[in-house]
């Protein structure tokens, strides 16, 4: 009898544990975001594969991927404008990005990629790496991309779809101003539509670390390059002056010869 009670007790606990585990897994199920980046070059693409479960896929919610970019990375606003016109991208980014300056003079910023939850959605962001100032100590620089974040906004009828287990904080709401690329945290939900964003936990997956090795010029060659440039500049300038004078002298000689010939012809006549 005791053995039967003990076996019943064990079986009950096992079944309860399995049921609770299933419930917890259901409650804590997170969106999955796979991030890939081209392996080489100064011009690359970031590819995001975003996966939601059926509950979100059938909703009227909107998500935003917030991708921080360090000073060593920039985007071409003309390129992104073209992609948006072709409906190949829906993004928020700075209206002007100086693509000419080096890393040491640039500032980091974020790009927001907008989408609607689907079973599987793919987004692509073209990025470009800046050159660094020359250095005496190293010949390459490691550029690391910032950690991606997922934000979700749902209308009134779909708010209950966002389980509190998926939120980074049950009382945290975020506002996104027009043309802004950074979310602002609020202590409570505001009535404005742009303050209805929640930051959501997600399973971020990458095959390789999101970093790149960018070549850096050797500052030890600065003096040699400086004097070589000065010498070449002076040589080219002197050659240009001498060539110009030579051409001018030849033209004067030809004109003088033509003038003398005309005088001789006049005397003959």
Automatic annotation (TrEMBL):
<keyword id="KW-0812">Transmembrane</keyword>
<dbReference type="Pfam" id="PF08320">
    <property type="entry name" value="PIG-X"/>
</dbReference>
<keyword id="KW-0325">Glycoprotein</keyword>
<keyword id="KW-0472">Membrane</keyword>
<feature type="transmembrane region" description="Helical">
    <location>
        <begin position="222"/>
        <end position="242"/>
    </location>
</feature>
<keyword id="KW-0732">Signal</keyword>
<feature type="signal peptide">
    <location>
        <begin position="1"/>
        <end position="25"/>
    </location>
</feature>
<comment type="similarity">
    <text>Belongs to the PIGX family.</text>
</comment>
<comment type="function">
    <text>Stabilizing subunit of the glycosylphosphatidylinositol-mannosyltransferase I complex which catalyzes the transfer of the first mannose, via an alpha-1,4 bond from a dolichol-phosphate-mannose (Dol-P-Man) to the glucosaminyl acyl phosphatidylinositol (GlcN-(acyl)PI) intermediate to generate alpha-D-Man-(1-&gt;4)-alpha-D-GlcN-(1-&gt;6)-(1-radyl,2-acyl-sn-glycero-3-phospho)-2-acyl-inositol and participates in the sixth step of the glycosylphosphatidylinositol-anchor biosynthesis. Probably acts by stabilizing the mannosyltransferase PIGM.</text>
</comment>
<dbReference type="InterPro" id="IPR040039">
    <property type="entry name" value="PIGX"/>
</dbReference>
<dbReference type="GO" id="GO:0006506">
    <property type="term" value="P:GPI anchor biosynthetic process"/>
</dbReference>
<dbReference type="InterPro" id="IPR013233">
    <property type="entry name" value="PIG-X/PBN1"/>
</dbReference>
<keyword id="KW-0337">GPI-anchor biosynthesis</keyword>
<keyword id="KW-0256">Endoplasmic reticulum</keyword>
<protein>
    <recommendedName>
        <fullName>Phosphatidylinositol-glycan biosynthesis class X protein</fullName>
    </recommendedName>
</protein>
<comment type="pathway">
    <text>Glycolipid biosynthesis; glycosylphosphatidylinositol-anchor biosynthesis.</text>
</comment>
<keyword id="KW-1133">Transmembrane helix</keyword>
<dbReference type="GO" id="GO:0005789">
    <property type="term" value="C:endoplasmic reticulum membrane"/>
</dbReference>
